[in-house]
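Chain and conformation:
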Amino acid sequence: MQVILRTDIERLGRLGDVVEVKPGYARNYLLPRDMAMEATPGNMKDFENQRQKLQERLDKARSDAERLAGQLQDLKLRIPVRVGEGDKLYGSVTTAMIADALAEQGFDLDKKKIELDKPIRSLGQFSVPVKVYPEVRPEIKVAVVRHGEEHEEHEEDEQEPEQESEQAGEQ
């Protein structure tokens, strides 16, 4: 069955492409979600009239995604985990844990958009790609630290300004 795509669909095509898909995929997924329309001569004319509005909507979504990607690119997450002997993690760091850490920072991303090939099973720094939009994939930095270490570092950061203010008062 031939359909006209009304949005960009990864691995299928871009807005306005006429593609061949299986009838069930078109009937049960693409058409009900308004992602495509059947490729008839009448629909081709209607689509050309709607193309400008659809393209503006996609451009706005892409610019929003690029702005979000810029914010995520600068983000550094710290995920505290419990470890045993030899710095071996109890369990692993999953996409759900990374999504929860992002939510704490104010970013509402679905865990399915975090592209982690396999769960993280060791301490250290990791770059994790996030699929924000079909061609926009920023990488966030994830630091997996021993449970309890994240508080010690924050306390040290908080103590430094107090020491500077005491030194300024002495002069």
